[in-house]
Specification:
Layout (H helix, E strand, L loop, with lengths): L2 H13 L10 E4 L2 E4 L1 H8 L3 E8 L5 E9 L5 E3 H9 L3 H8 L7 H13 L5
Antiparallel strand pairs: 1-2, 1-4, 3-4, 4-5
Length: about 120
């Protein structure tokens, strides 16, 4: 398990909570760009997010991401690459990337990171 990278991601989110949105891997809006834990992981590892632009029925634009291109040139789903970089088992990746309460998400993430690092999600 790459606890160093996991701690770096958590520190990045804590330092700039407005850059974090656990409900989507990545999103661009007029207010800025947000990433989930997995999205922050791949970016910190040097990955370049592959953005997808979709027009909604009302004409507005939704820009989201589900894939990343890594420095070696390979492209992968964000959650798959992040799990690999962090050395997570599937249950740990699911616990860290999905299923969070709407309130106190950053605090919940901190607890979840420590639980995973302590082997409580295997």
């Amino acid at each position: 398990m790459n606890t160093f990278l996991m701690d770096q991601v958590m520190a990045t989110i804590e330092a700039d909570p407005d850059s974090h949105n656990q409900s989507v891997f990545g999103r661009k809006t007029d207010c800025g760009t947000t990433l989930c834990f997995a999205g922050h992981t791949v970016v910190l590892a040097g990955g370049e997010i592959n953005w997808n632009e979709y027009k909604r029925i009302d004409g507005s634009v939704n820009i989201t991401a589900c894939a990343v291109t890594m420095p070696d040139g390979h492209t992968e789903l964000i959650e798959t690459e992040a799990a690999s970089l962090l050395g997570l088992a599937p249950t740990e990746a699911n616990a860290l990337f999905f299923y969070f309460p709407k309130d106190n998400v950053v605090e919940s993430l901190k607890v979840r990171v420590k639980e995973i690092q302590n082997g409580e999600w295997l």
